[in-house]
Design goal:
2 domains; four-stranded mixed sheet; 2,3-Dihydroxybiphenyl 1,2-Dioxygenase, domain 1; alpha/beta; single chain
Length: about 140
């Protein structure tokens, strides 16, 4: 079996969040979805489980963080080019997400940041490793 990543997030409104992530380009796997959780598919090996706070709490060993006021994690998604980064970001914004900072350009990587309704932070980026600096700056 291939190694897979499942990101689990507590959300206030599962259906609204499902619409948001669908517009960002995630698919839905109905086999692992119900009224309390939706399995959203980014790729063959990357999945996002969005769950009601009640469902999430049944798995959690600590209180659920308030991601509207504090950062619980940064989730990064690699895309094929800058146009795709911009397209996914615009789709997320049109779906009601926010962009808390402007695009960052590191020369070899361009990154945009998006937040969903619950404040979960996603970094969408394109990286061209051929442009990665080969010399480290002097200290």
């Amino acid at each position: 079996m291939a190694k897979q990543i499942f990101i689990n997030l507590a959300v206030k409104d599962v259906n609204r969040s499902m619409e948001f992530y669908t517009k960002m380009g995630f698919g839905n796997n109905p086999q692992f979805s119900d009224d309390t959780a939706k399995c959203m598919v980014w790729s063959e090996d990357i999945f996002l489980m969005i769950m009601t706070h009640e469902k999430f709490a049944s798995f959690a060993t600590k209180p659920i963080a308030d991601t509207k006021t504090g950062l619980a994690g940064l989730f990064s998604l690699s895309l094929d080019n800058l146009d795709e980064v911009n397209s996914v970001t615009e789709a997320a914004l049109n779906a009601g997400g926010t962009e808390p900072v402007e695009i960052r350009d590191y020369g070899f990587m361009q990154q945009r940041t998006i937040e969903d309704f619950d404040g979960h932070t996603w970094e969408l980026f394109y990286m061209d490793v051929t442009k990665f600096p080969t010399e480290q700056p002097a200290e």
